[in-house]
Write a structure and sequence with these properties.
Layout (H helix, E strand, L loop, with lengths): L4 H33 L19 E2 L2 E4 L6 E3 L8 E3 L11 E3 L5
Antiparallel strand pairs: 1-2, 2-5, 3-4
């Protein structure tokens, strides 16, 4: 037996009723819109094309405990700039580079 869209529609309508089908379609539309409206995580300045200060906040990033050998560089990234996370081996601190990503 070959089923068509009309057969499927008649089957669903007979099982759910006219209003049940409308509720089902409304729920599916709501879920589709809710999924589309969900925030997409975005990394700001992920290619380090904008300056990021050492031991401070800027360019979408916050860095801490970065020594003189570390920090932002305008070249040698892929593409563009890069940030070297370096600290002179102090046991009590670790160098960090962070960004809050929501979504």
């Amino acid at each position: 037996m070959v089923y068509t869209v009309n057969d499927t529609f008649r089957d669903v309508t007979s099982r759910l009723g006219k209003y049940g089908l409308m509720i089902l379609l409304a729920a599916l539309a709501f879920l589709a819109c809710a999924d589309a409206a969900r925030a997409v995580p975005v990394i700001v300045n992920g290619d380090f094309s904008t300056f990021v200060p050492s031991n401070g906040a800027g360019g979408g990033w916050t860095s801490a405990n970065i020594d003189g050998n570390g920090g932002w560089r305008s070249t040698n990234g892929n593409p563009g700039g890069n940030f070297i996370i370096n600290q002179a081996g102090q046991v009590a601190t670790d160098p960090t580079l962070s960004q809050l990503v929501s979504g």
